[in-house]
């Protein structure tokens, strides 16, 4: 009994220490962001930030690129993971290794490679105009999000009987496009949403690619404000944190709803 009580006490101490390590800096940042007015606490820093056209433009720009990144990533990852699972299972370790490379290769190396290949002097000058640079930035974001999006989709595919569903759809006369659209995508809805929310969180806070490609994204805006002001950066940090955790919370909600729906069916 003493051993069990000691283990439980140790677990609670570890939880409290971990929570304190995580929450205390956040609380201190939030408290500092409320001190913009000398007479007391106020939300003035948040009002200034939210009314700033730079914040509105940069956040809208990053949100739009995040949605485009999610769309491109899904169209790339889902058919690939489906085909690997169905026809080429021996290549799965190789594909998993490739999708892990963005975690190993720094983003700054990636963007300098992009500038070398697709700069104004490259064979395909994406950076010659703004829309081309935006497209190049989306491709970079897809690469950064690939480990998370691929694993979400691959886990979702592992949870269903891909082969049986495909054979049943083929027996009813469905082609590959219809199988993906009507069978695979609906069964991967939760996995795709999980990967999408993670991708959104990554794109919103990304700095290196957007900065070196000179695009007006939210990450460079955070750095610019942090270098020139005092209280607004703290407010922006809290806002960015809330956006990220909102995405994580939505991911958990959709995952839980999916699990409850599956339990009800059984």
UniProtKB/TrEMBL annotation:
Entry-linked CDD domains: TM_PBP2
Main location per the UniProt record: membrane
Superkingdom per UniProt: Bacteria
Keywords linked to the UniProt accession: Cell inner membrane, Cell membrane, Membrane, Transmembrane, Transmembrane helix, Transport
Cited Pfam families: BPD_transp_1
Transport recorded as keyword: yes
Transmembrane segments: 9-28, 59-82, 94-115, 135-153, 191-214, 234-254
InterPro entries associated with the record: MetI-like, MetI-like_sf
Protein's membrane topology: Multi-pass membrane protein
Residue ranges of every copy of the ABC transmembrane type-1 domain listed in the record: 59-251
UniProt keyword Signal, yes or no: no
PROSITE patterns xref list: ABC_TM1
GO CC annotation: plasma membrane
GO biological process: one example: transmembrane transport
Subcellular location: Cell inner membrane; Cell membrane
Family, per entry: Belongs to the binding-protein-dependent transport system permease family.
Name the UniProt record assigns to this protein: Spermidine/putrescine ABC transporter permease
Originating species: Chromobacterium sinusclupearum
